[in-house]
Amino acid sequence: MLETEKLIMNFSAALRRRAWLGFFALGVAGFASAQTTVVSTLSPPLIGGSDGITMNNWRANQFTTGSALTGYDLYSATLQMSVATIDQGNFFVGVYTNSNNIITGDTPGLQLGINLIGTSSPGSAGQNTYIASSIHLDPNTSYWLVEGVMPITLSMYNVNFESINPVVTDVWTLTGKSSYTGNNGLTWGFSVTGTIGMMSLQMVNVPEPAEFGLVAGVAGLAGCVVARRRKLRQKA
Fold it and tell me: What pLDDT is recorded for position 195?
């Protein structure tokens, strides 16, 4: 009987340890993956027009990040779109660096990572969300969200814009600068102001060094509690 009770107590202790570790793991996962909309022109919807995006004619909207020391991980971008003129697929969304050209001003530079993941055939009117994969953005830095159609496709998708300039939310800025290319991204024309893409950007928090220390401290405390309980049981 005593041996059976001992086995039950050990099993119960093991379950408690697993619960501690499970709750801690869930807390860390939630801490690391909290996503926040940092800037948006989607609400209220004030559609001023739309740009036709084809395999030759791409559009880019400039945005500037906030001042968090560790930067940001882009989670997603959401676009407001009208009904497609021609819907044959191959639409894409990408993030590009900022290139400051003496002649054309700010224009898209090099692409960061791969295209965002989402529908390549946004033929209906409404909002479409595209998910980023491992795109880290530095603080206080300008980037471009580029919409285009991969060649060779006759699609024409219509991305909405509004006549507001600029939009600032949570220290991020949609600058109101747009740039266009007529040769599928080989060269970009003058950056212009006066319209701003109907879009929102979501990011994932990148913990500050002090926050990493806090998580490590909680992990150490949990480990000490488990070890202390083990010693007490051994003495008993």
Answer: 81
